[in-house]
Amino acid sequence: MKHLRKIIYSLLFITGFASCVTDDIGDCPTAETANAQVMLSLSVPSARLPEATRAIGNDETINSLHLLAFENGTLAEITDITNKYQNASEGKFYVAVKESTGQVGLALVANTDVSALSTGMAKDAALQSLIFTTADLTYMPMYGETQEFDGISRNRTYDVKVNLLRSLAKVEVQYNSTQSKSEFEFLEIEVLNTRAQGYVAGQGIPAASPIVGSIKVPPTVNSSEPNRQEIASAYVAETVNDASNKISVLIRGKYYGAEGYYRLDMIKAEQTDEIDRLTRNYKYVFALQNVNYAGRTCQAALSGEADNRAFNAVVMTLSADESDILDITTDDRFFLGVNSATMQLADNGRICFAKLKILTNNYSEGWKIVDAPAGVTFSPGTTGGKATSDADRKVSSVWIYIDTGVVKSDFDFYVTSGKIRKTITVRLP
Predict the structure, then answer these.
(1) Are 189 and 313 in contact (CB under 8 A)?
(2) Is there a single domain that holds both residue 212 and residue 293?
(3) What are the C-alpha distances in Å from 330 to residues 10, 103, 229, 337, 420?
(4) Which of 106, 194, 259, 363 could form a Cys-Cys staple with 239, CB 3.0–4.6 A?
């Protein structure tokens, strides 16, 4: 009986140790394990976009997260790490990865059903099985991967940052106006002819993906009269824009009480060139000013000439890193955008402050801040925004500091770029 008891105790010990192998090494009583520890940190490009009223509420939320480990081009592990991410300290957390002498690459898949995956699948086949349908989405699917490692060992330290890219694009209409609602009421946008499905990872467009007839979204009111800003936006799958599948945005509104429609095509420059495709992780923005003519019937708007010229509306393409530029003004060639045209100051005693973000595609002139009153200073300065190309441009962050011993009331200053002059209103706490 004593001998039997010893055998049972030994088996329990072995069972307990084996169960520990699948967890982080730090969770185990011993380092004798077949797993290596990899420290992960995630980067989700800043969004801070107006909440879309259709399907996806926040395009930064991670509701589920899976780790995929590929060994020599084959899927070797699928691990649910949602809890580890949600309980992470300062955005960093450890995951356990099996030791290997082969080429190992790690990928993270967020907000995605991974039930179609199984170990042993080739990497391309695995990623092509991860398909989303836009109508079914509640959270934004995202994907990112690490560089390949020449083996994974528990005797090495791994500290890896993974950049997650959104799998959808965003189409947005900004209505910035001095008109009253009795003059023009912005009711809705309808995004036409985008794909119904897409790959979570960057694998092109599924061959069998049907075309979505339309996606309808009402605007969100950011500010009211006399300086109205209303924004309507929709998330869409990657779509090629061609003659047989022309992407456009139909605006429904009331001009002096009469309902009508206005069509905007994906025209990007000088009212001629069109964007050839909508790409994941990018935002496509139409900035509209005052509406000065009545709309047409729906059929007439769809079949007739686009309203881009009448609105002086061109589409501006912003990357994810530029996506918090929410207030954009255009002329016939350039745009100037800021995160907000109304700055609410934070109070820090006598000195109040706020952060203004600025972006322009007028690379030769950049932007300037002018006509600020005494007692207002800007850091790092009042000029910036020059670049050599779209790839070279960056969002400028300018801190505004106000000495409340000098400045006693709300005030305006201006950001200019070429012919564009934007009013920035600063409100004291």
Answers:
(1) no
(2) yes
(3) 75, 49, 15, 9, 7
(4) 194
Residue 196 has a CB neighbour count (10 Å cut-off) of 20
pLDDT digits (tens, 9 = 90+) for 225-250: 778 889 999 999 999 998 888 999 99
pLDDT of residue 91: 74
Q: Which domain holds residue 273?
A: 169-324
Residues in the chain: 429
| Residue 51: predicted pLDDT | 36
Asked if 48 and 142 sit in the same domain, the reply is: yes
Ranges under pLDDT 50 in the chain: 1-33, 46-54
Claim: this prediction has a pTM higher than 0.85: no
Answer yes or no: is 355 within a domain: yes
What is the model's pLDDT at position 24?
38
| β-bridge mates for residue 189, sequence order | 217, 251
Of 166, 188, 208, the residue at which a domain comes to its end is 166
Residue 400, strand partner residues: 354, 378
Q: Determine whether 87 is exposed, middle or buried from the number of CB atoms within 10 Å of its CB (0-12, 13-18, 19+).
A: exposed
Q: Which residues pair with 245 in a beta bridge?
A: 242
Contacts of 383 (CB under 8 A, 6+ apart): 366, 367, 368, 369
In this structure, the answer to whether residues 186 and 278 fall within a common structural domain is yes
Domain match, 37 and 48 both? yes
Burial of 143: CB neighbours in 10 Å, binned 0-12, 13-18, 19+: buried
CATH number of the domain residue 70 falls in = 2.60.40
Domains held by the chain: number? 3
